[in-house]
Structure of Kinesin heavy chain:
Amino acid sequence: MGTEEGIVQISVASVVEEVLQQGKGLSDIDLASRKAEEASLRRYVAAGWLRKTIGVVAAKDLPAEPSEEDFRLGLRSGIVLCNVLNKVQPGAVQKVVEAPPDSVNVPDGAALSAYQYFENVRNFLVVVEEMGIPSFEASDLEKGGKSSRIINCVLALKSYSEWKHGGGSGSWKYSGNSKPSSAGKQFVRRNSEPFMNLISRTSSIINKSPDSSDVGHEAREMVNPSSLQMLVHDLLSDKKQEDIPFIVENMLSKVMEEFEHRLASQNEQSKTSHKETVVPTTDESPLELTCEETQVAIIKDEEKAPDEGTCGRVDIDDDGASTPVVRQLMLVEHQHKEVQQLKSTLHDAKVDLQSLQLKYQEEVSNLGKHLHGLAHAASSYQKVLEENRKLYNQVQDLKGNIRVYCRVRPFLPGQPNSLSTVDHLDDGNITITTPSKYGKEGKKSFTFNKVFGPSGTQEEVFADTQPLIRSVLDGYNVCIFAYGQTGSGKTHTMTGPSDLTKETLGVNYRALSDLFNISEQRKDVISYDISVQMVEIYNEQVRDLLTPDGVNKKYPSCT
Ligand SMILES: Nc1ncnc2c1ncn2[C@@H]1O[C@H](COP(=O)(O)OP(=O)(O)OP(=O)(O)O)[C@@H](O)[C@H]1O
């Protein structure tokens, strides 16, 4: 490569020559591994097609990706081959000697089978030869190292089968690898002809170029076509026929690699020189100069260094039309613009994102403040609630831990009103008259926390006991019991009459309903377990009124 700036000095011929020179030292190991890889692939394709054609059960002896030995052993009996052939060409092999079932023990089976299997292989080979399909020797199946011919035959049969499935139009011609030939040298000459012709054509083009053209002149200086031919000849002449495609493929890929590499580095150089030439005059980015400016810059570079080597270079046309360099620079310029646009879009997106982030942070911060306020309020509320409870229970204490209420039952239907002993009653006092006694002796007054007259309702009675009952939920023990003679109205007050309505519900129902309501209201804060027990104390005996067996269960007497 020359060092002249702004000029592409890549000569295809020179690259080919260099690669050919390197190719002389093409590693035998590379070649061998490539060959082995290729052979394996062909073998897998062949095995895959055989298995697909007769089914994996019938081809059980042949793995999907067999080794060379597996492949040979799988086909050795000729059963797979004959069955496949009969699929492709029905009736081609009249009688296929099948393997005995695994369970059958054939006496002297090995020798007998070998003979019978040979029949299969022979029949197969006769038919494929008749069909014009590349064949192999029966002995190839007996010894290792010959599988390529077998594979070739199978792939040719595959090709024939596909041709037949496709309608069989025209005449079938197998284009795969042909049978190996010992005439390696001849093959080399034949197969290398197109390549040599290509080189010859290249050299003739170079020779016919205008004498003043840099390309022709300098390419001639750099590469002698006959030396290129010699190189190719030297490289290929001692190679085996089957190696030629790998070598040529290898060389071509290396030529491509080398060419791309040189093009890239040349491009880099062009960019550098371009920057150095144009930048100082404006504030613009050096890559943003126009196509005309680019051409001028390159021409200037040429003038600066007229004596430097220009072998094989591609230069600007006389009429200023786009040459590869200019096209590349325009491409670079275009890409640069796109990159700038992308950068600008990215920048905008970043700005948007940042503003969104700020907004989001602000909202989160506000939300945090609100939450803090709410938490503070909740905590204050809890404190106030706690304070309220304390005060509430203190009030209950002040009102008295033990409260006694008096309720006067009304006359029952049919009872005469004139027989009432209640002389007077007010909020907390009741005066009783004893008809048999006179004067002061005949009247007695009693004081209670509250006295309910005959017209007092169930609701009024409960209203006074409710605050005490609520204290239960704050951890206080509360006991309510009714006391009085038979028929005075204890059951009526605590439970209600037999025909219960919402208005006649007694203290028990109302108390439980109230406890459940409060428990539900406080469920987010506290969980209450509520259970009910109902006992009766009668004649010094405690009885469980909720016993499930229906019989009043006596509690054991306390000692
Ligand atoms: N305040 C009231 N208003 C209307 N009827 C009532 C009132 N109190 C009691 N009664 C009625 O009086 C009758 C006797 O009441 P209750 O059965 O409640 O008495 P008790 O004290 O429970 O009797 P015992 O001790 O024998 O069980 C019932 O028919 C009941 O409905």
